[in-house]
Amino acid sequence: MKTLFDETILKNLKLKNRFFKAAVWENMATIDGHLTDKLYAVYDKAAKGGVGLILTGYAYVMKEEHPNPNMMGIYHDDFIPEHRKLTQMVHEYDTAIIMQLVYGGSMTLRNPPSPKIWGPSTVKNEMSGITPYEMAKEDIEILVDAFAKAAGRAKKAGFDGVELHGAHGYLLSQFLCPHYNKRKDEYGGSIENRVRIIAKIVEAIRRETGEEFLILIKINSEDFMSDGLTSEESITAVKILQGKGLCAVEVSGGILSDPDVMKNNLSSLRPVHNKEQESFFRAHAAKLADAVSIPVILTGGNRHIDVMEDILNKTNISYFALARPLICEPDLVKAWESGDRKSPKCISCNRCFDPDGVSCALNRRISG
Fold first, then answer.
1. What share of the chain is helix, strand, coil (3-state, %, to 5)?
2. H or E segment at 149?
3. Comparing C-alpha atoms, which of 191, 188, 174, 183 is closest to residue 225?
């Protein structure tokens, strides 16, 4: 019988358990993406809390754009020393750390937005109101190189790997989504074409970082749009990327900029009222885990330890990522490991996304 506290090997990386801290919007870096004492403290607390691996909040790969203010940057070598301080701190707790990389595209809350936002096609984003420029092939090559260089910096800073943010409607997710990708060239149309830009990025990162560096992707199980990425296409995309050197896949779901997705609670930010509603994307993740040979990480709505144990032993899903519960209780995994199988305090209210930086509304109310 498998347990959530099994020691496992992810490619060449030993992990002390199957729990990941999922990436979240932290809003604690400087406007230029530099780390702050506040941000170091968040990661110190997360590593101390007992997870096997931390996925950072996304770091933007190009100075010209960042989808939200006060998120981390990795677009210049100057960032390497401060990130090395972060990885050394986390590794002291026998916790691995992977940097999530992003280009936001029209999925941006930055005000004012960058002068020229890229997209696969000139399709208006319903959330931001931005209509991006359609990327020329030369732009795609620039972006591929930016991701590769960012991954190289992450490696030099001591990260155990990188994760491409290919979910939720950010640029790479838009390439996968027919609603946003209307291209008629080799980057549009079939899923084999729509995943091509990500495949090129994976190959470029592999050349930049060598064979042992971990490359993951966060991808939607489906977009939950009538003209979005389907479950079958998502599996096909992962199979293609596996052949290019992808090491693991994190499964999420939903385009956050689509009003119907948000109104109908189909995204990873949906509420959780009972155990039956937990682990939102488990069915797709289980199907994917049967179809590929790389580890599958289930994210979104993971709450109770007994539910995750049941999924672990009834499917080939390998890891479980938690976000909101660990914002509320950073030491939750350590408590579970000690034998306290308590229910998490998190009520999935989404009020953790505070303008002053991510923090639990329940804890703010108690301390206030």
1. 35, 15, 50
2. helix 137-156
3. 174
239, exposed or middle or buried, with CB in 10 Å at 0-12, 13-18, 19+?
A: middle
Q: Which residues contact 273 (CB under 8 A, 6 or more apart)?
A: none
Residue with tokens 């004492």: 37
What are the residues facing 188 on neighbouring strands?
none
Question: pLDDT, tens digit, for every residue of 240-271?
Answer: 999 999 999 999 999 988 878 777 777 788 88
pLDDT band, residue 367 (cuts 50/70/90): very low
104: domain range?
8-367
Helix ranges (H only) for 92-183 are 137-156, 171-176
Find where tokens 């986390």 sit. 90
Q: Cis peptide before 112, with omega less than 30 degrees from 0?
A: yes
Average pLDDT, the chain: 94
Q: Is residue 3 part of a domain?
A: no
Give the start-end residues of each E strand in 273-353: 296-299, 319-322
Cα–Cα distance between 240 and 299 in angstroms, integer? 21
Whose tokens are 């052949």? That residue is: 243
CATH code of 275's domain = 3.20.20.70
**How many distinct structural domains can be found in the chain?**
1
Query: Which residues are CB-contacts of 170 (< 8 A; sequence separation ≥ 6)?
Result: 58, 67, 102, 103, 104, 105, 107
Q: What DSSP assignment string belongs to 345-365? A: ------TT--TT----HHHHH
- The model's confidence at residue 125, banded by pLDDT at 50, 70 and 90, is very high
pLDDT band at 366 (very low <50, low <70, confident <90, very high): very low
Residue 37 corresponds to which tokens in the numbers above?
A: 């004492």
With respect to residue 223, please indicate whether it lies within any of the assigned structural domains. yes
What are the structure tokens assigned to 187, written together?
């980057």
Residues in the chain: 368
In a domain, 301, yes or no: yes
Find tokens 């199957």 and name the residue.
Answer: 18
Statement: the pTM of the whole predicted model exceeds 0.90: yes
Is residue 364 over pLDDT 80? no
Q: Is residue 234 included in any domain, yes or no?
A: yes
Q: What is the 3-state secondary structure (H, E, C) of 34-55?
A: CCCHHHHHHHHHHHHCCCCEEE
